Amino acid sequence: MKNLFRQMFSFDRSSIRWRNFLATAAFTARVFLSIGIALFLAFMIQLESPMSTVTTVLIVANPTVGALVSKSVWRMTGTVIGAALSTAVMAMFVQSAVLYFMALSVFVGLACMTATCLRYFRAYAAVLAGYTIVIVAVPAFTHPENIFLSAMMRVSDVALGIVVTAAVFMVTSPRRRQGTMEALSGAFRETLRHALVFHEGLVRPAVIQDVQNAEPAVADGAFRTLPQTLYDGRQRLLGQLARLGPAIEYAATDNPDIHAGVRGYRLAVSRMTGLVASYHPYWRNLGIANPLSADVHREIRDTLTRILVLTESAGWIEQPQSVLACLEDALERLESLERSAISPEAQASVDNTRDILFQLREIVLDLSSPRGAHVRVRSGLHVEWMSAIYNGLRGMLIAFLACMIWYITYFPTGPMMIMYVVAASSLLSTVPSAARASVPMAIGTALSVPACWLCHIVALPRVDGYPMLWLSICACMLPGVWLQFHPRYGIGAFGYTVFLAMQLMVTNSMVVDDITLINTWLAILMGCVLLVLVFRVIMPADQRLYASRLVLSLGRSLQSLSSQPGAKVPSWMVWEGAQIQKVSSLLMRLSLVTSPIDRQGYVDGAFAALSLGRLLIRLRRAAEKAGLTAAQTEALNTALASFRMLRRDPAGTAASLREAARLIGSDNDPGMEDVFRVRLVACLEQSAHIIDSIPGFFHADGPLNCWFDERGTVKLVTATPAG
């Protein structure tokens, strides 16, 4: 027992555990200080519901100042919009309760759907607009003529909480541009290390032979696995890059230097994600151990090693000349290797490697010159419309059910139940899986009921001044505030703190009403049951269906890319930026699928689909300079047109690509066009190889679409679906 307590309270001051403890303690102290000041000012200016300022503090507070500022701006925007909508809806349907409830439910559903479509804290404006309508309307249910006053009071509560929280955090939190730049530099170096492991393995003939002799996942050997360390490293690095995106957005809100170059930094993160996605088991040259391929991989291995040495210093981003010169030298040496690449297999090694070096050069330029003329790429926003519509329908249904339950039973604290379910469903619309998060949200809210009871029974009756009141409220909220950003307990802790503040009846003239308090607890518990009932029973999430829609969208984007005229083919960065968003969402959806599924196969298939899109773009560029004959041009067009049957007959598409490669590759006339013809053949061969390796990924009857016998043998994406 003595050793246990020693381990709990003895920290190494340089350890990650100690730093996390200090960061959490500092965040908690800032939150409690903001609560104390906001609640004191609410009492001083005689606000009608002072605890609303506490709720605002708990929702807005964020360890990152930029995130707090962004969240505050959008919270205020959503509150104003919600207050205006609430006033308008009450004015239009004041004579008919049922019509009012229907209109209220529609607006809540639209807010939930909009919140799902938006990113970062822009989604929060839609969330606030949704449940502010209810919060403003609740006090005016019995006296509709007071709706405007209720709206103004709500705006005042939120504004006070936002101003106090922002002031406390901005004064007490250090803000440094260097931290963001260090994170970007670290992510770039981690990306280099991930690539270096891959190429190091392909340089040594013994390792190549091991890869060739590795046991295939299917009988025909089309699918070859990489070492597990590469899969683990890729997953970790992709998670790091995914977290870096929001961090840049939030830092740009607070730091003018980051804001000025945010587009370049955002583009650099997207390029790094695409670079990591380039390394998958479907490289055409992975299964061909020819000497030239080893030379190419040895060249890029040495280049990556030199860049890692050059980027060790902290200021390399400000002075990237040596890194850029290293990349240019590597590209020149690669050109000399390309001239000796007379086979499509060897050219595949050169093409893939050149593509990687180009990406690295663009990443360095994006980091060092984020406001340069080259930063013009705008990646579109991918919206999962199916998930957005589903969340909108959930919000609409739960709001209408809660309103009708109160309308029929006339439960005294029914408006509290309405307020809770609307607020909870709106907040859940911003998380990746609303159905999965509904249970911890309901559990956290349910735990706030006994905490509220203890506060009213033990603490509040003994309070004889504001300091004691402040300390009592903070003590009750301590568990939720401390765990709010814990990966496992974050949603539940957030529900605990926010809805505990909603239940505490702390007013300027406190009158303890036990009956009202008990009814409030019953309303909250009824709301928890209704939340889980709607999100998990009536309208449960179908993660498998969501994942299949994303796979379908990837296939359609490839079909669209192959059918566009050469002059209208988009930049690979524009195309890939949208597809990476789909792949990120697909990874999350696959992790939530409970039925047996070939997850690793689908993950690698998604990354291979990105490479297939790049190959199509490179193919178009090579075709313009390859000097093709009429017959070769017709064969190429036929191969590209075969992508229309990718979902019905992927093997036929691959065969058409391979036939075009055979026809174009048979022309041995020397000249400048010969290099481009070899590039073209290499792209066609690689594209056919990718499609042949994962026919189940592209096929309409692939594993994700097979609903029968889900508990049977896992169906692989490397197998061609029957029928």
UniProtKB/TrEMBL annotation:
Species name: Gluconobacter kondonii
Stated name of the protein: Fusaric acid resistance protein FusB
Keyword S-adenosyl-L-methionine: no
Keywords: Membrane, Transmembrane, Transmembrane helix
Transmembrane segments: 21-45, 100-118, 123-141, 147-171, 388-408, 439-459, 465-482, 489-506, 518-539
Pfam families the record matches: FUSC
